[in-house]
């Protein structure tokens, strides 16, 4: 088993379970502050043990459990214009930027059409709509939803042409406490939908994302990760993977994180 997958599995099995409905009640966080960290498995083991310790003040972080499973397979297809407009909007730090994807929850078969936007205070706004069995990802319903979201949020029109740009697969365990959620991803594999080239993330790293209410304050998890000498990385799966797969797209801003997350691609 890949070390990072083993690490999230062990942490998940050691934690108390929580149902999906309980998680949504405690920390659905459709508007939130996200921070990403690349965490070596040795540090992750201690980090997770401290957060899920039954003696933690306020009670331990619990792990999402659905039908007895505590870590899950995620398959996402990201969409962009042929010229990669949404990628370059993120690269340039534009105020009105967003990402479009279809997410498949492999263990349940559920599909969601999702749009992630940047809010006025730098927060992440997530909008999603279930996809019916057999429904085309960019069919009339999802395209209408996309147009409504972009017009309502930014007052802009949806792109006229969208194509698959990146496919990602990974394993995830999710931990939650009141108002906080931590996703822990391992075995990330990314495939360029245009060229077919693939990269795999370092198997000794767990991609940890802290998600909290829009307050601007560091969470307990952020502060704990800082004690290990770790700092949040300018990293999203979409932009990081595209920078690794097509290094000519960017200059310098993601080189360090790409070298760390995808060392074989950087080499």
What is the residue-mean pLDDT, rounded to a whole number?
92
Parts with pLDDT < 50 across at least 5 consecutive residues: none
Q: Reading side by side through the largest sheet, how are the strands ordered?
A: 2-7-6-5-4-8-9-11
Outline, from the CA principal axes? globular
Beta-strand content bin: 25-35%
CATH fold-level name:
Hypothetical Protein Pfu-838710-001
Count of all domains = 1
Q: Number of helical segments?
A: 9
What's the CATH first level? Mainly Beta
**Share of residues in helices:** 25-40%
From the alpha carbons, calculate the radius of gyration and give it in angstroms.
18 Å
CATH superfamily caption: Hypothetical Protein Pfu-838710-001
**Secondary-structure-derived class:** alpha+beta
Terminal residue distance: 24 Å
The tally of strands reads 11
- In the CATH classification, which architecture applies? Beta Barrel
What string gives the helices and strands in order? HEHEHEEHEEEHEEEEHHHH
User: What does the main sheet amount to?
Assistant: 8 strands, antiparallel, barrel
InterPro entries: VTC_domain (IPR018966)
Pfam families: VTC
Domain VTC: 63-245
Organism: Streptomyces chrestomyceticus
Name the descriptors:
eight-stranded antiparallel beta barrel; Hypothetical Protein Pfu-838710-001; globular; 267 residues; 30% helix; 9 helices; alpha+beta
